Amino acid sequence: MRMTKIVSDMLIVAWIKSYPDFRRNPLTILLLATIGAIPLFFMLIFSGGGLLVHGLIGALLSSVAFVAVLSGVQDISWDRYVKIREMIVAMPVHPASYALGVALAPLLLSIPSLVFFGAVIASLGALTVTTTLWTILAIVLVWASMSAIGFTISTYLSKVSMMVLNNVSTLLGFAFVFVPPVFYPETILGNLSWISVLIPTSNAAGLVRSYMGLLPLSTETIIIRWLILVATTVAFVVLTSVKARWRET
pLDDT for 31-42, tens place per residue? Predict the structure, then answer.
């Protein structure tokens, strides 16, 4: 019964955090799509199409990763105006329900972007049933880790200005999505390519590229990279449950 309540509360929070904004501004979904489309556009121009699939993989993952970080950090600024968090805190809502609801909201809004970029990749013949399943798993893990990071940081920024919140969320998005090899192949980094394994977004991108035949990795390497991705995700989620402040915010 307790687990059922946590899930039901999570869905309610996700609805509160996503549907009203979408109702007021339906172009939100289009704006989310441009997060991946803009760097993809420049990649097409300067690479002559040679990095098209690599860029599409980056767009697929960035559709979730970027908004997951932003939603967690900017959640506190949004609540300053509507006081939703204060009302929910006053109710018998489990912290996990609120955190998962906040994380689920942008994921729901990202579904059209995921479907679009996934369809483009499929049209190029780079997706199979097996590859799609592994890609979905990678996306879920990226969503969980990035949401955990954003939510944890947001609880410690409750007193800072709106400008600082916006800058922090944007910098985190760039740091996890555009700087590491998410839109571009990790082989470009040469001897430093191992760094991409330590970052959830680039690690997931490398695994997806491997299943699509764009990055040659041995079976042992793939297993190790999955273990690292799962471990980093679990670490961020545990950090959220241990360090994130709830009633005090």
Answer: 565 666 666 665
